[in-house]
Amino acid sequence: VQPNNYSTFYDDQRQNWSIMFESEKAAMDFSKQVCIAKCNSSSVLESVLYQDLVLGEGQGVEGGDSLEIAYTGWLFQNNGLGQVFDSNVHKDKLLRLKLGSGKVIKGWEEGMMGMKKGGRRYLIIPPAWAYGAQGVAGRVPPDSTLVFEVEVRRVKLVKEGSGSDGLSVSSRDSPAPSPVPSSDGFSAD
């Protein structure tokens, strides 16, 4: 996903392609279908699949950062989206979470790393990274693969040296972490 309704990808021969879509919605719908196709083409889904829908702005989030999220969750059934089992999109309250605190399913912790404020991402989460063999009574059957569309509405980054335990691991590819977001801090992707 690129700004201005562009998507880029490589084919099997490593040739780079770009597609420009008429609208942001068309670009997002295409990106969702690509993510579902990736899921359906893997024999066993062993980790979280994610696809950015909107990139967002600012610094990517890491463990310890606090987020406010709007989300919708579907069951993955018959190789596509099944019924919605949870959503806060039409509610007044956003979900507040601190990445790395273990308060949400492991697939969210993993799949949301690097997201930016205003960013939207599609997550396909295998059972082992979700609710596993237990499921959630009356809502999520045992061993369910889940699909989420998540949007980061607010971000509170952990400032360096303010209560950090020094054990957080950075997943960024930048040569040095920058304590404050700057206008020249764009990543190569």
TrEMBL record:
GO biological process terms on file: endocytosis
Xref: Gene3D superfamilies: 3.10.50.40
The UniProt record lists the keyword Cell cycle: no
Pfam hit, one: FKBP_C
Superkingdom to which the source organism belongs: Eukaryota
Region listing for Disordered, in residue ranges: 160-189
UniProt entry keywords in alphabetical sequence: Acetylation, Actin-binding, Cell projection, Coiled coil, Cytoplasm, Endocytosis, Endosome, Isomerase, Phosphoprotein, Rotamase, Transport
One Gene Ontology term, aspect cellular component: growth cone
Keyword Coiled coil: yes
Reactions performed catalytically: [protein]-peptidylproline (omega=180) = [protein]-peptidylproline (omega=0)
EC code(s) of this entry: 5.2.1.8
Subcellular location: Cell projection, Axon; Cytoplasm; Early endosome
GO molecular function per UniProt: actin binding; peptidyl-prolyl cis-trans isomerase activity
InterPro entries for this protein: PPIase_dom_sf, PPIase_FKBP_dom
Residues covered by the PPIase FKBP-type domain: 64-156
The family this protein is said to belong to: Belongs to the FKBP-type PPIase family.
Subunit text: Interacts with WIP and actin. Interacts with TBC1D23.
PANTHER family: FK506-BINDING PROTEIN 15
UniProt-recorded name of the protein: peptidylprolyl isomerase
Gene encoding the protein: Fkbp15
